[in-house]
Amino acid sequence: MERKRSKVMKLAYTATKYLFSSHNITSILSIITYMTNYIQEIENLPLPFIFYNPITNSNISTDLFQYVILALVQCLYLYLSFNVCMDLYHSSVYSCSNVKTDMELFMLSIEEFDEVCEAVMVTDYGEESQKRRHEILREYVKGLVRQHQIIS
Fold it and tell me: What are the record keywords, sorted (predicted)?
């Protein structure tokens, strides 16, 4: 079960990492195409993402230095947002995974309680048989209640 969760986590991490990497590669390829004179005007270079403002012109950079600075800032932003996304994803998956594991352990405890209950009912404890059975079952129920409180 843990291996499957770990595999899913690695798959999600890899997919998200490559998505953010592809956005960052856009800036690098744009600079290379500008340096090779494939694209003549700096305004035609794509950025990793564009903040569109309908009131002003969206092309902010007018020379290569401005473009490089803007691309670096956006790549840094993408890197930081990638880390935040992964941290949030990991924390949510791990918390759900822990609750599921605790619930499975609780189910095992209930199955064990069922077996103990059957064994206690069959066993003869002599004169105080009923009282002894209640004590044994009470201790098991207390353990189940404690475990249930930990889960919730």
Answer: Membrane, Transmembrane, Transmembrane helix
Provide the 10 A C-beta neighbour count for residue 88. 10
CB atoms within 10 A of CB 75: 20
Contacts of 72 (CB under 8 A, 6+ apart): 27
Cα–Cα dist 144/142, whole Å = 5
- Return d(Cα 14, Cα 8) in angstroms, integer: 10
First-to-last C-alpha distance (Å) of the chain: 22
Tokens 């798959």 found at: 11
If you count them, how many residues does the chain have? 152
Q: Which amino acid is at 59?
A: N
Exposure b/e, 108-133, CB count within 10 A at least 16 = b: eeeeeeeeeeeebeeeeeeeeeeeeb
Q: Could you tell me the CA-to-CA distances from 146 to 30, 98, 140, 142, 143 in Å, in that order?
A: 61, 17, 10, 6, 5
Which residues neighbour 100 within 8 Å (Cβ) at sequence distance 6 or greater? Answer: none
